[in-house]
Amino acid sequence: MNLPESYIPILIQAGVAVAFVAVSLLGAHFLGPKQKKGNSVKNQSWECGVPSEGNARTPFSIKYFLTAVLFVLFDIEIVFFYPYAVNFREFGLEGFLAVLTFVAIFFVAFFYVWKRGALDWDK
């Protein structure tokens, strides 16, 4: 099997990445702390010396995750404004109309989310 020379650096990088993951996992397994079996006080979880309350498996409200996804979505929108802000004179009217279209799509999405009640925490 003859590979083009341009694939060799990619294969080396992939090999290093796989080796790093394998060494990290094996090192954590063999060098990490071992927990003793049993129900001793030492193995219980504590937060600042205060006994924990409830179950750690309590589900979060879907509103929390929806708000996080919406934050990321609208935060990434701001990232796309940077190239336009730097080069707005070179883009001219065509660039301005493209940015207006981009903003209009996000406003439609924002009003859709708002009308669907995704931003109402009281419900």
Mind explaining what this structure looks like?
The chain has helices spanning about 10-30, 60-85, 90-115, and strands at about 45, 50. The longest helix is centred in the C-terminal third of the chain and has 28 residues, at about 90-115. The chain has a domain at about 60-120. Strand 1 (about 45) and strand 2 (about 50) form a beta hairpin. By secondary structure, it is mostly helical. The mean pLDDT is about 85. The chain has a two-stranded antiparallel ribbon with strand order 1-2. It is built from three helices and two strands; from the N terminus they run H-E-E-H-H. It is an enzyme of class 7 (translocase). It is found in: Cell membrane; Membrane. It is a multi-pass membrane protein.
Structure characteristics:
mainly alpha, 3 helices, two-stranded antiparallel sheet, cell membrane, 123 residues
